[in-house]
Amino acid sequence: MAKFNVVTYEGAVGAVRDDRSELFLLAVANMVGEATFYEAAGERDSRFVELVHRVAVADPYWTEGFLRWLRTGANMRSAALVGAAEATRALLAAKLPGGRRIVASVLQRADEPGEMLAYWTGRYGRAIPKPVKRGVADAVGRLYTEFALLKYDTAGKGFRFADVIDLVHPEPSAPWQGELFAYALDRRHGRDTVVPSALGMVVRNGRLRAAVAGEPGRLLDAEALKAAGMTWEDALSLAGSNLDKAALWSALIPTMGYMSLLRNLRNFDQAGVSDEVAAAVAARLADPEQVARSKQFPFRFLAAYRAAPSLRWGHALDEALSASLANVPELPGRTLVLVDRSGSMFGRVSQRSELTNADAAAIFGAAVAVRNHGRADLVQFGNGSDRIDVRRGESLLRVVDRFGNLGGTETLAAVRRHYDGHDRVLIVTDEQVWAHQGDPGSALPAGVPLYTWNLVGYRAGHGPSGPHRYTFGGLSDAAFRMVGLLERGADGAWPWLAE
Q1: How far, CA to CA in Å, does 483 sit from each of 23, 275, 300, 490?
Q2: What is the pLDDT of residues 454-469, one digit of tens each?
Q3: 335-497 under CATH 3.40.50.410, yes or no
Q4: Given phi > 0 = left and psi -120 to 50 = alpha, else beta, which region is 141?
Q5: In the chain, where are the structural domains located?
Q6: Interacting residues of 42 by C-beta distance below 8 A, sequence separation 6+
Q7: What integer is the mean pLDDT of 480-494?
């Protein structure tokens, strides 16, 4: 339950949440080490660590489920890794178990065991406690493969595979993995060694690299590239200027992952890949199953759309964006959707992206309006507010293009102006209302549900949580399904408890 005992950054009376709710909202919006419009990076990261420490000790079971979901459901890598390390530290200090399971559950990619150890040693020194070591070792047994070695065990990593193996002493899950561990150690420590025959992919990779020096055309064999575990980055580097880029991309595309395709559309166009190859890429991008497996944030598709120079990707990206928002519900009755377009929303969602929180808010708001066409009223607000028209079957990308920049944050005024007997109200915002604004829920009948979708995770919110007043957060669509669950009276207000 939140209480009105703080102020927002703009001086309005604000609501502070309980620790679990504040941690949830901060974590799903927190790109570790990055500042936001109102909050410096160090201040934001310190608040996150302090919350993790308190919540881990107060509720270890909730913390374990939350951090696992944060990595696997919300797809937040850095926040989940930092959260797991800090939760384990707090549990150790309180002499409570559970750290090993938490650490193992958040490590989902082969470079992450090294990242976990780099974080711990950088913050707390080389004395690594047993729960961290054992959790990392458990993950190593799942994640270290031949392809992972070729892709992630590079000189640019602070912790190489061998460094992790030396520190945590994992048990091989199979004989071939024992050979992999030994080979990783030998090459890290400069010992001359022949690649074991059990590591067929590594053997083939070395042979292909040696052959390319005299015969660069070997890189145009898509099957050979796949068998050798050759990444697209390595193939481009090996080819240099010796191969036609369109031909090289055409050979690489069949084995590229979804995210790699999405990020290289501009490169495909600049290289001049054929329409046939482009059509195959577009089909993969638009495939709902591949979209779901990729776990891409919806705003990634808007970023790709804006970055790609040609129009041949537009329909596929629109289909992919729609598929990425599959959890957006069809809601009974009438829904009012309010999208915050104030100045503070125009901070970037990440230092690695040109898109803003305002873009993300527009995507979510437009998705609800498109999914509930004829039953949802879409409104953008700031100093003022106005309706955004949505036509039946319209592209989400086209709808997003209609939003503008409206200055300040007058949420209560927007609710008062546009609420007209709707069955529910959904607000997508950073909650930093201006000083003369009050709780937006005060403009609604007590029994009308108000769902606030907070994209930034500041401490003070614009209103309290409680009966018919709910706050979600983050950049993924994972909690959209909670609207229907809550209205049907389902138990469990946290996404991982409703799965």
Answers
A1: 20, 42, 24, 10
A2: 776 555 555 666 677 8
A3: yes
A4: alpha
A5: 200-294, 335-497
A6: none
A7: 60
